[in-house]
From TrEMBL:
Residues 74-137 form the NLE domain. PROSITE patterns: WD_REPEATS_1, WD_REPEATS_2, WD_REPEATS_REGION. This is NLE domain-containing protein. It comes from Micromonas pusilla (Picoplanktonic green alga). Residues 1-24, 39-70, 315-377 are annotated as: Disordered. Keywords: Nucleus, Repeat, Ribosome biogenesis, rRNA processing, WD repeat. One of its GO terms (biological process) is rRNA processing. Residues 1-12 have a biased composition (Low complexity). GO terms for cellular component: nucleolus. Signal peptide: none annotated. Its main location: nucleus. SMART domains: WD40 (SM00320). WD repeats lie at residues 204-243, 261-292, 384-424, 470-512. Residues 368-377 have a biased composition (Acidic residues).
Length: 557
């Protein structure tokens, strides 16, 4: 038994472990080794030095906490939910209390005889081990004489950049929810699709102003290899395109006619597809969110032709009826003299001619008049009201429940069919980004200037105060996304240009990537999402789509 539990010399662990007292657990003796050697034996990439957080953790935990100078031994029982080939005997044995996750991973790799070694992470009472075992017990007030149950899980590997895509302006929105492609929304007025390897597939034009939000409706049985790309932006209109990607994923094309969804009276800030792909939600600066059936949009070409025809008609009318000199409006210039200006309400006339809400009205209309006119809604459209400021984020909990985040410092859930508000959470800051964990439950959100990622569990029922928060970014966090298939992993991005990967069972990020580098205050990332559990995608003011590969075997843990 002693031979079975001893570590080999290559790992710098003494084969001749100390004889245990009768009835006590076997004991490992670990000889200190250099960080790179220890990380390699533990399965962690030696080519990548530990992050600052990891280095601080290692230095702090390397000091023996015992006042007597004797090495503290802690009896551990290692358990896992991994397949049988990764399981060791549940019999407890003693390990040095100064071991951190790297040393523990070395132990598990030796006992499993893994070649090459595999990195593991460790949980005690549902919390990731980020100090030495001895410090962990002291913090929890647990005696070192007790048997500590330690669960081991695969560690998430560091992200590596796989590909990039390029826009002519800021990339403000990104969506990787469909396996066939990654969608981007840009201030250059276009929406684009890229392959998972970063190849540009198709560019979708139509918006008259910057595009800031995009989502992908999951394919239905009729879509085949295609999907529906939905985008929104500063022109206050949502547009949708049917796109088909070839079987090899090397090219894509827009099929049929695109559709427009008209009704918002302010900039579209966010769009999100329902889990079943039947409808989508949109949020706007007009203080509302809307749920749209994918079939209710008007034909985009007809809509655009009507806009252009109305524009030309009003221009011709103006030219025919205008006086020879410019129509004058009196005012005062900086010197107090009468000033004149051209008054050409052409754009407003176009909106009036087509019966389309003028987006400028949302800013000009007095608050007491906002609810006077009852909008007649077509079938398949539901308006979600209740916020008192811009709706900046939308996310689906299920096919029946939509969550919204707002500049009014609140999160609200709505019945997607009835449009009624079901639950309200008073956030301490304005909400900029929102993500709901698959299957419901935990909400992740960000915003304000506190540089944190916040979490709230609606099942707890508290109307104020975040359940927990994670701090590491150095600028405002603007986007969050849950990892598909995981209860605990998510990504965040901020104005510091970084993408961070988290496991909410720990307080430190798993990894930090400088996704959108630049000078201080100019290196801004704007959006982040997952493309499956093993890719993270982001966009920023550098006009780049960044695609990162992540070694993630713990996606279901």
């Amino acid at each position: 038994r002693a031979a079975a539990l001893s570590l080999d010399a290559a790992s710098r662990v003494n084969r001749a472990h100390r004889p245990s007292r009768e009835g006590s657990a076997p004991v490992f003796r670990v000889v200190p080794v250099r960080a790179k050697v220890e990380r390699r034996a533990a399965g962690f990439p030696s080519a990548n030095p530990p992050s600052r957080n990891a280095a601080d953790e290692a230095r702090a935990s390397s000091k023996n906490m015992g006042s007597t100078g004797e090495e503290t031994q802690i009896t551990c029982k290692f358990v896992t939910r991994l397949p049988e080939k990764y399981r060791i005997s549940p019999t407890p044995f003693a390990v040095p209390g100064k071991l951190t996750r790297y040393g523990l991973s070395e132990v598990i790799n030796h006992l499993l005889a893994l070649d090459p070694p595999k990195p593991f992470d460790f949980l005690v009472d549902g919390e990731l081990v980020r100090t030495s075992l001895e410090k962990l017990l002291l913090r929890k007030g647990v005696s070192a004489e007790s048997t500590l149950e330690v669960e081991y899980i695969p560690a998430v590997g560091p992200p590596s950049e796989e590909a990039t895509g390029k826009h002519d302006d800021w990339v403000a929105g990104v969506c990787g929810s469909w396996g066939g492609a990654i969608a981007t929304a840009s201030y250059d007025g276009t929406t684009r699709l890229y392959s998972p390897k970063g190849k540009h597939l198709v560019t979708l034009d139509g918006h008259a102003q910057p595009v800031v939000a995009v989502t992908l409706l999951p394919p239905t049985e009729d879509d085949g290899n295609g999907c529906v790309v939905v985008s929104g932006g500063h022109d206050c209109v949502v547009r949708a395109w049917d796109v088909v990607v070839d079987a090899k994923g090397d090219s894509a094309k827009h099929v049929g006619s695109s559709r427009v969804f008209v009704g918002h009276e302010g900039t579209i800030t966010s769009v999100a597809a329902s889990p079943d792909g039947v409808c989508f939600a949109s949020g706007s600066y007009d203080k509302t969110a809307r749920v749209w059936a994918r079939t209710v949009g008007a034909d985009a070409k007809t809509h655009d032709d009507e806009i252009e025809a109305a524009r030309e008609a009003r221009a011709a009318e103006w030219k025919a009826t205008a006086p020879s000199s410019s129509k004058r409006r009196k005012g005062k210039d900086g010197d107090g003299e009468d000033a004149v200006s051209d008054v050409r309400p052409l754009e407003r006339s176009v909106f009036e001619a087509l019966g389309i809400p003028d987006p400028n009205d949302a800013k000009k209309k007095p608050a007491e008049e906002e609810d006077e006119e009852e909008e007649e809604l077509p079938a398949g459209v539901v308006v979600l009201r209740g916020h008192t400021d811009a709706v900046t984020a939308v996310a689906w909990e299920s096919v029946d429940v939509v969550w919204t985040g707002s500049m009014d410092h609140s999160l609200k859930s709505f019945d997607a069919d009835a449009g009624t508000c079901v639950q309200t959470y008073a956030a301490p800051k304005c909400v900029m980004g929102l993500a709901v964990r698959a299957g419901g439950g935990m909400l992740a959100w960000c915003g304000g200037g506190d540089r944190m990622v916040h979490f709230w569990d609606p099942r707890v029922g508290n109307a104020t105060g975040a359940t927990t928060s994670l701090a590491s970014h150095t600028e405002m966090v603007v986007s969050v996304a849950w990892c598909p298939g995981s209860e605990y992993q998510l990504a965040s991005t901020a104005y510091d240009g970084n993408v961070k990967l988290w496991d909410i069972r720990g307080k430190l990020p798993l990894h930090t990537v400088k996704a959108h580098p630049g000078k201080p205050h100019t290196a801004r990332a704007l959006c982040v999402d997952y493309h499956g559990p093993n890719r993270v995608v982001s966009g920023g003011i550098d006009g780049r789509l960044r695609i990162f590969k992540v070694d993630n075997e713990d996606r279901a843990s």
